[in-house]
C-alpha cells in the first residue's frame, strides 16, 4: 500500500456476509456504461511496484464455467462471483478472450472485477441500521 494511514473500506452482501475490503470506496470507482457495474481493479500482488489501490473479494465463490450474456453488439462471457453464504451474484469477471492482450487465452480475467449494482452494503450503513429490506427488494432476493 502506498501509505500506512490508508483507510480500508469494507462491504457486505445484503445477507450481511463480508465480501469486499478495499482502499477505495465504491463511490470512487468508475462505472461501466453497459450495465452500470462498478469497475474494481484487483492488484497484481506478484508485482514489485508500489500498490496505490488494494481490493480483495472474500467469502465469495467464482463460477468455474462462464455464463454467456447477449448484448446489443454481441456476446460476453462472464464468470460470476457469488456470495459464499446466500449465493447472490455480487460481481463478475470477464473472460480473457475478450481482451486484446489475452485474446488467445480463456478463463476469468483476474485483474479486474465488475461489482453488480445493489448487491453490496458498506459496514457503516449496516452499523447505522440502513433499511436492509429496501436493499434486498432492489435485487429481488430473500433475506437469509
From TrEMBL:
Transmembrane segments: none
GO cellular-component term (any): cytoplasm
Domain STEEP1: 3-127
GO BP annotation list: endoplasmic reticulum membrane organization; endoplasmic reticulum to Golgi vesicle-mediated transport
One Pfam family of this chain: STEEP1
InterPro entries, per database record: STEEP-like, STEEP1_dom
Coiled coil: none
Family of the protein in this entry: Belongs to the STEEP1 family.
Record-linked PANTHER family: STING ER EXIT PROTEIN, UPF0428 PROTEIN CXORF56
Protein name: STEEP1 domain-containing protein
